[in-house]
Amino acid sequence: MADNLIKKASSKKENSSPLLGRFEIGKLLGHGTFAKVYLARNIKSGESVAIKVIDKEKILKGGLISHIKREISILRRVRHPNIVQLFEVMATKAKIYFVMEYVKGGELFNKVAKGRLKEEVARKYIQQLISAVGFCHARGVFHRDLKPENLLLDENGDLKVSDFGLSTVSDQIRQDGLFHTFCGTPAYVAPEVLARKGYDAAKVDIWSCGVVLFVLMAGYLPFHDQNIMAMYKKIYKGEFRCPRWFSPELSRLLMRLLDTNPDSRFTIPEIMENKWFKKGFKHIKFYIEDDRLCSVDDKQNSEDDMTSLSEQSMSESDTEVEIRRRTTSLPRPASLNAFDIISFSPGFDLSGLFEEGGDDARFVSGAPVSKIISKLEEIAQLVSFSVRKKDCRVSLEGTRESLKGPLTIAAEIFELTPSLVVVEVKKKGGDKAEYDQFCNTELKPGLQQLMREESAGSSHLPSDTE
């Protein structure tokens, strides 16, 4: 067990004081030129984590400050069930600490080193790899060093992409729309990278995925030679042969993944529509809650699940839904103090404000919390958004992918007075233009309609001034 390993390793250390008072450091998992990775345990939660310890002096001398900053930014941007998670970053005068998800199963490389995989097993790994890579690409992140050594397996046998040290983002593209940095592992590098004329990083990742798929199914590399220049020539010409045990569907897929012409090479959507790839494929559903990745169990139908109001209405009548909402006890919203109110904005108008500023918006209402939550669900239904509810918080998430991911909006209800509440709306992810449009065309009119309904039905509420 991981915890036993931590305790044994910790007991051997002379200085067993917890790291920054929070983590017990265990055995060394691996090391490189600038960093070491240790198994560790969160003292408070008991959770096993991996901590990457980076020497500040070494990265300063190597001029890698921007490199480390970019890696942190990328890991925060690409949170996905098949990508190793970065939980937090800590620092002292001498060290930087990445607290990351501990993936217990080791490298996929170790599994392949024992021999080729069964087709259904290889297909599962490639499906998970393509899902993760597609997720990264949709957010303008490109790995550029995909290989079995950078693909880890967790205790459930699920794949996790790691080591974003050579990854890059779309804002590093030159004016010609291409990347120009030579990087990657020789056997997995795409021919256009070897040409040193600029390349589409998304297509480079797809080539590497093709090499990974070949290796999983064959047990050896498609392009291999003891002389590296001879190997580069094979890659540049696309000279490889599929073994006899490859099915025709698999061979055709590999020909499109390992196409030396990046323009005709398969894209992520084309891969996902491929007959061989699609067999048994299921899209992963997940969400971020309290800065942690949470998976969605489709079999659960509780109110806290990601679900749409339209799905509820199919199984319950409107009357039943309303009764359930009335009988469900909601906790009292958190109260706002004077400093909270002052910080909102000058000229705060309690007669029905929808104050907007940047990615935040606020709305004052005399409606009960349950009615406000119902209205948010109703608005979400109109645009086919998913809804998650927890206490006095509601999260709305769209399905349309953009460079910054799907539009995600968090709404939280605070108590202003015993008869008035403030609904604070924030953009948590996605494109700002899409957020502004949603607020102006759906959210703002919907909440203002609720205000008018409450004003008409309750004489003690402020009247609408519009």
Automatic annotation (TrEMBL):
**What EC class is this?**
transferase
Positions contributing to ATP binding: K52
Residues covered by the NAF domain: 331-355
- Cofactors (names): Mn(2+)
Transmembrane intervals? 204-223
Reaction catalysis annotation:
L-seryl-[protein] + ATP = O-phospho-L-seryl-[protein] + ADP + H(+); L-threonyl-[protein] + ATP = O-phospho-L-threonyl-[protein] + ADP + H(+)
Q: Where is this region: Disordered?
A: 298-320
Query: Which InterPro entries does this UniProt record tie to the protein?
Result: Kinase-like_dom_sf, NAF/FISL_domain, NAF_dom, Prot_kinase_dom, Protein_kinase_ATP_BS, Ser/Thr_kinase_AS
Family annotation (Gene3D superfamilies): Kinase associated domain 1, KA1, Transferase(Phosphotransferase) domain 1
Domain called Protein kinase: residue spans: 23-277
Alphabetically list the UniProt keywords.
ATP-binding, Kinase, Manganese, Membrane, Nucleotide-binding, Phosphoprotein, Serine/threonine-protein kinase, Transferase, Transmembrane, Transmembrane helix
The UniProt entry's GO biological process terms, in alphabetical order, are: signal transduction
Query: Which GO MF terms are attached to this record?
Result: ATP binding; protein serine/threonine kinase activity
Q: What EC number(s) does its UniProt record assign? A: 2.7.11.1
Annotated Polar residues bias: 307-316
Protein family (similarity comment): Belongs to the protein kinase superfamily. CAMK Ser/Thr protein kinase family. SNF1 subfamily.
- Record's function text: CIPK serine-threonine protein kinases interact with CBL proteins. Binding of a CBL protein to the regulatory NAF domain of CIPK protein lead to the activation of the kinase in a calcium-dependent manner.
**Name by which UniProt lists this protein:** non-specific serine/threonine protein kinase
What is the originating organism of this protein?
Answer: Quillaja saponaria (Soap bark tree)
